[in-house]
User: What shape does this take?
Amino acid sequence: MAAWGGVLKKMANEGGGGGGGGGAVSGGSESGAADDGGSNHDSGKSSTSNSEYCGWVYHLGVNSIGHEYCHLRYLCIRGNHVEMYKRDPHENPGIKPIRWGVVGHTLMVEDLGRRKVNNGDLYVLRFYNRLDERRKGEIACASAGEARKWMEAFDQAKERVEYELSKGGSMRSKLNMENEINLEGHRHRVRRYAHDLKGLIKIGQGPEMLLRRSSSLDGSDRADIFFEADGGDAIEAHEWKCVRTINGVRIFEDIASSESDNGILVKAVGVVDACADTVFDVVLSLDRHQRYEWDTLTGDLELVDSVNGHYDVVYGTFDPNHLTWWQSKRDFVFSRQWFRGQDGTYTILQFPVEHKKRPPKSGYRRTKINTSTWEIRNLNTSSSSNVARCLVTQMLEINTKGWFKWKKDYSPKFEKTIPYALLSQVAGLKEYVGANPALASESPTTVVHSKTSSDVSASNGGLDDAEAPDEFYDAIAGDSSSEDDDSDDDSEEVNKKRKIKLKNVSWAIASLALKPTSAPDSNKELNPDVTPINLEPSQFHGSMQRGRDETDTNCWTSPSGTGFMIRGKTYLKDSTKVKGGEPLLKLVAVDWFNVENCVDNIALHPKCLVQSEAGKKIPFILVINLQVPARPNYSLVLYYAADRPVNKNSLLGKFVEGTDMFRDSRFKLIPSIVEGYWMVKRAVGTKACLLGKAVTCKYLRQDNFLEIDVDIGSSSVARSVIGLVLGYVTSIVVDLAILIEAKEDAELPEYILGTVRLNRIRPDSAVPLEN
Assistant: This one.
C-alpha cells in the first residue's frame, strides 16, 4: 500500500520524460474494404458496441535519457478512436488529449501478464502493429480483470472498423480520406463524440481504487458478448463422479483414470460469489495475511523467481502439526503458470520444481506439492442479479491407494494429507469471499449519458472532425509532466445489463446426445456447375507419413468432425451447439519442417505440394502453416484440398477473397488432446480460438490457393503453452478442427473446413526445408 502511494506521488511530481523509447503514434492504413459478408451483425451486438470506454491506466515506457517511467493516464476509446489524457476529460471539460489515434485492423493487443513496477504488481498489455513491430507501446492495469476489459474494448473497436468498412458508401470514402491527413505533432482541437455513442462504460474506479488494488469489474456482464457457451468445444473422455460434498464444495473423481497405475485425477468444484477476475487475483496473491484466511497449506509463500508475466516460482513452508502426523517442518518449491483463454477462463498450472535459489533448508524436510490446476470461469447470471458468480475448479493427481481407502472408509488420515489440504482450498476460498462483501459485490461502473442524437442510424455514424488517422499505440507522450487528479467520480452508476437467457446446467451432457450435424452443403460452398475431380491420396505426398491405423505413431490422419462442438442453426437465439459433421475440405498431405527462422509463403517454395504437378491440378488448396517456436523452429504445414472451385458468394468464398481483417475475425481453431498427460490437456483446453485475435496471422492469396501463416510465437501465452506441449509431444494424440466462425443467421449452422489428428509426433523427424 505504501509502495503504491509512492507510485502516485512520484507520478504527480515527475516532469519531462518525453522521448522515443516506447515508440510514437504513427500513421495507420485503413486500406481495403471488408467483404460484403459483414463480420458483425447488428442483431448479435450488445448495446455496448456503440459505447465509449474509458478509465485510468498506467502508461509504461522509457524516456529520452533511458529511464523507465510509469505515468497515470486516462484512456478513452470512442468508436475506433483512442485518446489519452492527463486528467479525466469528463471532469475537466476542454482538456486536450496528449496522444490520440485510431484503431486499425493491423493493431494487435498482447497480454504480457503480471510485472513488478515500482515495488507493485501490474498487469501489462502490449500494443504493436503486426506489419511493423517498431510501432509499439505498453499500458498496465492494477488487476487482471481491468486488463481483460481493455482487451475486449480494443477488440470491440477493431470489430467496429470492420463493420464500418463493410458498409461501404460514404463511410468507406471517409475512412479513405483520413489516410491523406497530415498529423505530424499534436493537434489542439478536441473531437466531438460520435453521433451513435450511447453510453460511457468506465473501466476501474479511478486512481485511488487503482492504488488500493481493488476492481469494480463484473466478469459476467460482458463475457458472453465475445464468448458463447460455457462448455468446451471438443468432447473430452473424462467421466467425473461426485463422491463427497464438503462445505458446499463437490469432490469428484475421474472414473476413467481410476484404472491407471499413474494415479487418479480428483477435483474440487465450487461456486464463488465473485467474478473470475477477483478470484484469480486472490488465488495468485502472495499476501500472507490474505492467504491465512482461506489457505491451510500454502499460506506462507514468497516469490523466488519471476520468469515472465505468466510464469513464476514460489517457495513455501508449513508446520505439519495441524495438518499431518509428521514431526518435522516442511518446505516446498513449485512453479505457477497462468493464462486467460479467449472465453475468459483463467487457468493456473502448478508444478513441483527445484530451484537453485532455494536448496533444502536446515530444519525442514523438503516435500513435493501435488501437481494441480486451477480453472476459474464466470457464470452467466440473470439480468435481475447484481452479484457476479464464478465456477472454481481445482484438479490434482493423487496416489490411488490413499484415495480409495478414504472414499471407502472415510479414513481420517486422508484428511491430514497434502492432497486433502489442496482440495479444501476451494472451500476456503468460497468462505473467504463470502465473508468479504467488498469482493463479492464487485460490479462494473457504467455511466450512461442520454443523447438526443443517440438514435441516429449506423450509416451516419462515425466521429465528427476525425482528424487523427494515426494507428494507436500507447507510445511516449509529447511530455510527461503530470498533475495529480484526486477528484472522485460521483457520476450516477447504472448497471445496464442486457437480458441473458439462462443456460441449462446440463448443457454439456445434453449436447453429447444430439445427433451430429449433417455434412456441409458442398454445392453451397463449392461451385456446383463444375464436375468434381478425384482427389486420390496416392497422388500427394508430404514429409510426415499418413497413419495406416490407430497403432501408427509419428503420423497424421483426418478424423471426422464428431469430436467437436460447433454452432447450430439456432445458435444466435439459444447458444445451442451441435456435433460437427464430415469436413468440407480433404486433408491430402502434411509437411513437418525444421527451420532456422519462421518461414512465410511456404506455398511458393518449389518443393511444396502446391507447386507440384498434382497440386496445380487441384481447384483450390487451403494451406495452414503453423509456425512453432522452439530450438530449432518448426513448421507444421497442412494441405486441405477442394474437389471443385470455391463458390465466391459462399462464406468460404468471402473468407478466401476477403480482407485480412475479415479473415482475422473469422478464422477459428478448436484443439483437443485425445490422449496424453492430463496437465497438457488442461493447458491446451477444448475451447475454440479465433487465431487472428490471439496470434499474428499472415495471408497469401494466389492462383489456386490461400495460405495462412500462423505465428504461434507472436503471443507469450501461446509460446508458453506450446513449450509445455512440446515436452510431451511424443506421448500425446492431438486433434485440431479448422472452421470459419459463423456470425449471422444465413451462415448457420457452422461447418468444419478440415481436421487433422497428430499421433505422437517426434520432433527429430522434422526435415529441413531446402532452399
Notes: The chain has three domains: 2-27+48-217+444-471, 240-440, 539-768. The longest strand covers residues 329-340. The longest helix spans residues 144-167.
